[in-house]
Specification:
The chain contains six helices and five strands. A five-stranded parallel beta sheet has the order 1-5-4-2-3. By secondary structure, it is of the alpha/beta class. The protein has one domain (about 20-145): Rhodanese-like domain (Oxidized Rhodanese, domain 1). InterPro entries: Rhodanese-like_dom, Rhodanese-like_dom_sf.
Length: about 150
């Protein structure tokens, strides 16, 4: 007699510590970026900084701040924990080096804070958040800001 077992899928639940815990744990506070800082970064790119859009790909395709990469925090929360080859295969660009400063943005700032916390858990110690995110960027006419490239 053959017994059949039903297999229940495992659901992983991500638990993120509050930002204050992160700052205390790593003895470092994330940098807060404003519109003028991001505008300057677009107009004068800095190879030591990576602007990271953590919205979903559909949102990123609708409109994204120039020169940003897309790492969707909701559907790919472990992206920065991937090895470089897997990262490149999945996202089609190189994984940011741990020495780079990652500056996160989303629609309003909430997902950016979660992504910043996750980045720290993967060893990225130099992080920032554009707290106004895409809403602030568009409100302040950022869509007219162009990269020199």
């Amino acid at each position: 007699m053959m017994l059949s077992r039903s297999i229940t899928p495992i659901t992983w639940r991500l638990s993120v510590r509050p930002l204050s815990t992160s700052s205390q744990l790593f003895n470092n506070v994330f940098k807060s970026y404003k519109f003028k800082d991001i505008k300057e970064l677009i107009e004068e790119p800095n190879s030591k900084k990576v602007l990271v859009d953590v919205r979903e790909p559909e949102e990123h395709m609708e409109y994204a701040i120039p020169n940003s990469i897309n790492l969707p925090v909701n559907t790919a929360p472990g992206a920065l924990g991937l090895i470089a080859e897997e990262f490149k295969s999945l996202f089609k660009y190189d994984k940011p080096d741990l020495t780079k400063e990652l500056i996160f943005y989303c629609k309003s700032g909430t997902r950016a804070k979660v992504a910043e916390e996750l980045a720290r858990s993967y060893g990225y110690q130099n992080t920032g958040i554009y707290e106004g995110s895409i809403n602030d960027w568009l409100k302040k006419n950022g869509k007219n800001v162009r990269s020199p490239n």
